[in-house]
Amino acid sequence: MRTIKLFGLGLITLLGFQACEKEEESVSVEPVTISDLTCPSAVFSGVARAGVTYNGVFTVPYSGGDGSSYTSDNGVSSTGVTGLSAVLVPGTLAVGSGMITYAVGGTPQTGGVASFVINFGGQSCTVAFPVTDSPTAPEPPVGE
Questions:
Q1: 58 C-beta neighbours (distance < 10 Å), count
Q2: 20: part of which helix (H) or strand (E)?
Q3: From CA 55, how far away is CA 34, in angstroms rounded?
Q4: Separation between Cα atoms, residue 69 and residue 38, nearest integer Å
Q5: Contact by Cβ (8 Å): 103, 87
Q6: CB contact set of 104 (below 8 Å; sequence gap of 6+)
Q7: CA quadruple 95, 125, 53, 44: dihedral positive or negative?
Q8: CA torsion 79→80→81→84, rounded to 10°?
Q9: What is the CATH T-level fold of the domain 36-132, as seen in this structure?
């Protein structure tokens, strides 16, 4: 009888330890997919000027969203006008059409167009971000 009690107590203890152990949960992140990304319709916050630090955002319309969440990306550097980088802001797709947002920062080196090739949801396109030349001080009139 004593052997059965010890065996029962040992079994209860073993089960108790197993119940306390937390199993690792496996989380699978499915890549989001959309049907279209419309870079020519991107909207920019503020104006970027050559040689002046810029911090802002641009939004890009998409269609074919399914309501799933997405995380940030590694970002992309500008080409053409260099010195800027854009990073996807995490969010949740709308069901149907919506906008994704990229945070942009840096100091554009010259005036012109800073281009960002973005890849999102199985689609890719180029966002063209205008950068104005730095204002120069006016020259004083001759003879003054």
A1: 21
A2: helix 2-20
A3: 27
A4: 20
A5: yes
A6: 48, 54, 55, 56, 57, 58, 84, 85, 86, 129
A7: negative
A8: -10
A9: Immunoglobulin-like (2.60.40)
Q: What is the pLDDT of residue 31?
A: 80
Q: Where are the domains of the chain?
A: 36-132
Counted residue by residue, the chain has a size of 144
Q: What's phi and psi for 72, nearest 5 deg?
A: -70, 170
Amino acid at 127: V
* Mean pLDDT of successive 10-residue stretches along the chain, which has 144 residues: 49 44 47 94 96 97 96 95 98 97 97 97 96 71 61
The answer to whether the beta carbons of residues 59 and 97 sit under 8 Å apart is: no
As given in the structure block, the two tokens for residue 28 are 């699978």
Please report, in angstroms and rounded to a whole number, the separation of the first and last CA atoms in the chain.
Answer: 116
Quick one: pLDDT at residue 136?
A: 61
What does the alpha-carbon distance between residue 59 and residue 132 come to, in Å, rounded to a whole number? 20
- CA 43, CA 38: separation in Å to the nearest integer? 11
